[in-house]
Amino acid sequence: MTTTVAVMGSTGSVGTQALEVIRSAPDRFRVKVLSARSSVDLLATQAEEFRPDVVVVTDATAASALEGRLPPGTELVTGTAQLAPLAAEAQVVLNAVVGFAGLDVTLAALGAGRRLALANKESLVAGGPVVRAVASTPGAELVPVDSEHAALHQCLRAGNPAEVARLLVTASGGPFRGRTAAELASVTIQDALAHPTWNMGPKISIDSSTLVNKGLEVIEAHELFDVPYDAIEVVVHPQSIVHSMVEFVDGSTLAQLSMPDMRLPVAYALGLPERHGPAYGAIDWTTLGRLDFEVADLDAFPCLGLAYEAGRAGGTAPCWFNAANEVAVESFLGGKIPWLGIAALVKATLSRHDGGQARTAGDVIDADRTARRLAREEVERLGSRATRRTT
């Protein structure tokens, strides 16, 4: 039987690798929906190869440039309003939309009782309580695509929840592993984008440099697997071979190992409960050499500690953490704040959290809007301080 798939965010890193997986198994998967924001040429090429029923382009100008370039039988839809409902028409929805914008796709897929292959960690972090409620819809299934959570998902199949002692989420350490806070004062945008292991988009690369990505993953692990924060630890593992581990109450630790290759967790999420080739990330054990593990440096990378604080606070605090970080990353990439300003901005914004709860999607949207407004105020404040120091 062929499974229909909606690839939301098809022109990004995860989206293009998902299409590689689908290309390798044309008898198992058929692309029903493709979506992107503005990458017209690549989206046109993807549509010509995979012949989806619908292509959704959220940017109106890009959509105009795509008109007349789609194959016969493929409909072009413009704007964000139809993104979520069209995604939910497929049997499996791969949500690789970047940032908070992926929340609607997450809720629509689960609400329609679909399997959600989730690469958009922000929607679960920001709207965890709401997503959990919708995930109880009959037929709904949430399978993580992040390499760390896919690893945990696989290891947890070996035991029941009562047997879990702790989750160990591994981190490569990013491009600044081993540097002190003082040494990080002068890093550039190019420095922060140069990830040593993974080839990712700019937002995710910056998140890796600050360890925000690990903070988001800690919150996501809590939401996915219902494990308390005190039983979730981050371990720096520079080789990125051990993607995460589960320690059980009897002292046994199970780990999932593979060479860094995002196609493996994508294929796992699309194909469950079965595994199929190709063997993405297979290890040559004769050349592996060594595996190293280190403690995360919370002084040099305070965003990780801020994520734990937001997670433990609960309610809309994780949403505020995510929103403040998105504003901070945008501001850093735009040259408005330094790299160290990312953590400063997130901390300042979280200090103003109003204690709100996330009972509905509207609560999450309102919280996101409020946190972004306050974060932008912090950007202006940081910018003013920098100007006063240089005059």
Describe this structure in words.
With 391 residues, the chain is of the alpha/beta class. Helices cover 44% and strands 16% of the residues. The chain has helices at residues 13-24, 40-50, 60-66, 83-87, 103-111, 121-126, 128-134, 147-156, 189-193, 202-210, 212-225, 263-271, 302-313, 317-333, 340-350, 361-389, and strands spanning 3-8, 29-36, 54-57, 75-78, 92-95, 115-118, 141-144, 164-171, 232-236, 242-248, 253-257, 294-295. A 7-stranded parallel sheet has the order 4-3-2-1-5-6-7, with helices on both faces. Strands 11-10-8-9-12 form a 5-stranded mixed sheet, covered by helices on one side. The radius of gyration is 21 Å and the shape is globular. The termini are far apart.
Summarize it:
It contains 16 helices and twelve strands. By secondary structure, the protein is an alpha/beta fold.
Write the H/E string, N to C: EHEHEHEHEHEHHEHEHHHEEEHEHHHH
What's the rounded overall pLDDT mean? 92
Low-confidence stretches: 387-391
Give the helix tally: 16
Distance between the termini: 68 Å
Strand order of the largest sheet: 4-3-2-1-5-6-7
Shape: globular
Largest sheet: 7 strands, parallel
Q: Structural class from helices and strands? A: alpha/beta
